[in-house]
Automatic annotation (TrEMBL):
Domain Aldehyde oxidase/xanthine dehydrogenase second molybdopterin binding: 1-37
The species this protein was found in: freshwater metagenome
GO terms, molecular function: oxidoreductase activity
Protein name: Unannotated protein
Pfam families linked to this entry: MoCoBD_2 (PF20256)
Length: 104
């Protein structure tokens, strides 16, 4: 969910003095269960190489989702001249990119 949120929802907006305009989750959008597809978990046990045995556990979802979503959006909209290069890629950003591509 974190990776999906970073691409489609999350966007820090500041005023002219550098103060964040979204200071609560009412203003700062994050994905919730209805916005996320069903996720199938594959569990693989691997030994950690370090002496303590510690390793990460949640990074995979945050790392894989952004390029997958960006490539899917690019594939869907490239015939319109849209080439996303920055996040977020929410509806308003995509509409802006489509309008800019149309005017180019």
């Amino acid at each position: 969910m974190q990776g999906i949120g970073g691409v489609l929802f999350e966007n820090m907006i500041y005023d002219e003095d550098g103060n964040p305009l979204a200071t609560t989750f009412l203003d700062y959008l994050i994905p919730t269960a209805p916005e996320v597809p069903d996720i199938e978990v594959g569990h693989i046990v691997t030994l950690a190489p370090g002496q303590t045995g510690f390793k990460g556990m949640g990074e995979g979802g945050a790392i894989a989702a952004p390029p997958c979503l960006a490539n899917a959006i690019h594939d869907a909209l490239r015939h319109l001249g849209v080439h996303p290069t920055a996040f977020p890629l929410g509806p308003s950003q995509l509409l802006t990119m489509m309008n800019e591509a149309k005017q180019a």
